User: Fold these one by one.
Assistant:
Number 1:
Amino acid sequence: MRLDASDIKELNLLKYYRLIRKWACKTNNLKDADLELLIYLDCKGHFTRNDFIEGVYTYSWDKPRWERLRKNGWIETWRRRNRTTMKYSVYKTSFKCKQLIKRIYRIMLGEEDLPTSDRSVFYKNKSYTDKVYNKAIDDMIKDKQR
């Protein structure tokens, strides 16, 4: 079964995308471009460093992005280069990354709500922006049409 544009519009899938993306980035210490790149790479499955470089073309320049994502556990090596039969290493997104992306999808589909507990990094009322996001989260949770 193939989805078309009207099916996605009926799901209201992108209605709260910005809010959910901001929550995911702030909670996991990611930049917006990093999160979107991880979603792209997760869709590819296994990828090489060249695939990563091709995926980065449309994002802002950030030279240490590759090492930062690997060091923080978002990208892991699936198969190492061995210099005889494998000319390059193959990578995949980590379990931590896959879980975050699945959680984003569940929130977008309305199967799960954004956390509103006191422990939530995103839900603390420290600045005006935090209060605006908190109001938006409350409105999203009350919206039964998402």
Number 2:
Amino acid sequence: MKYLIYLLAMIIATFGGAYIVKWIIRPFSSDDLPVGFPKAGWWIGIMERFLIFICLWLEVYSLIGFILTLKAIYRFGDIQGDNTQKMRLSEYFIIGTLASLSWVILIYLLLVKVGK
């Protein structure tokens, strides 16, 4: 039963987070933000939430920092500069990342820690 709770929490955190994060960042989205590959952001978010959930489950918290650092380093070239579009892109990126991280932690705490 314990592993079923973990599996349910992982599915909710990983895939449910895609819809929650999209809902949270919708007010900050605009047509003038750069567009990448179709669904790439969705898949990055899925993998990010999955890996963070696994790290929480295994109590390997330092790896969460590595995942977030890797994501930030990758985006650094896109967001550096002083124009308004780059500032908006960096804010959009940070809001999405923090919403995703918050969602995973919330689900982990609710369904796994409280459910014990």
